[in-house]
Amino acid sequence: MTWLVTGGAGYIGSHVVRAFAADGIDVVVIDDLSSGKPEFLVEGVPFVEANLLDSAATRKALEGVSGVVHLAGYKYAGVSVEKPMHTYTQNISAMVSLLNEMAAAGVANIVFSSSAGVYGTPKDEVVTEQTAPDPQSPYGETKQVGEWLLADQAKAVPLNYTALRYFNVVGSGDPKVYDASPYNLFPIVCNLLTQGKIPQIYGTDHPTPDGTSIKDYVHVADLARAHVAAARALDSGKTLEPVYNLGSGTGTSVREIMDAARRVTGIDFTPTEGPRRPGDPSRVVASGELAARDLEWKNTHTVDEMFASAWEAWPKG
Fold first, then answer.
1. How much is the pLDDT for 123?
2. Which sequence positions are flagged as catalytic?
3. Which CATH superfamily does the domain covering 2-169+217-246 fall into?
4. CATH assignment of 171-216+248-287+294-313, among 3.30.1640.10, 1.10.150.130, 3.30.450.40, 3.90.25.10
5. How many angstroms separate the CA atoms of 95 and 272, rounded?
6. CA 131: distance to chain centroid?
7. What does the longest C-alpha to C-alpha distance in the chain come to?
8. pLDDT digit string (tens) for 238-251?
9. In whole angstroms, what separates CA 10 from the centre of its chain?
């Protein structure tokens, strides 16, 4: 049993590679290093440096594998509005290329990295897999199209698949691996505190207990283990649901994140406050019940543990 992890040099991908290795599953990585980092790669894991649009390289990476975890793609929702064609090329055209090469190689198992971005700004108090998708960025649209590609391809060729819709992935399961995104809350706070600057809360007038928006945060190591469970299920011939939400079912407010940052770092600060950002929902929390049932999914970390692991891994030099 060997699995190919696309985007395996990225923040999430490298954690997935580590989770597979810890479970005794051989892994191959393909990544063009456009956002992934060579230092995140696991020593001894075969690595192909290429974009999935390179069919020959993808074909080589698929040799001898029984399944694929597909994480590679352009992941910045806000910037995707400014770069829609780039986003579609990297997330849709590349996935079409991957699925074509998988079919040619007879690889019939795939776990797809989808996103809560398919839901847009949901009206449901708790998002479930039955919540209607309403993507509001090219990024979210590409993730929904990716799910469609899987369903359509499965009607044409043998293909066992599932899509995991991530919510806010945070923390670190290895002190050498950190979230370097300039758009995510945890790295923004870590970066500012490292520079001796004060983080800001955008919006304190939300209809929530403390006035700040509530989002669903999941630890990256817990997320990675869900991929292992999905891969093992598909490899054994089990039929999984087409999509699963990887959410905690509870949620954490921005102010609670700031409080955790203060406790964990020992830096006494009071966040500044600014107006809401356009389109920022007051509450997005997801049920992970289906994933708990089929993938033994569980968010095992407290907010302090999540931030502590992110802070430990954050480069401070």
1. 86
2. 139
3. NAD(P)-binding Rossmann-like Domain (3.40.50.720)
4. 3.90.25.10
5. 42
6. 19
7. 58
8. 999 999 999 998 89
9. 10
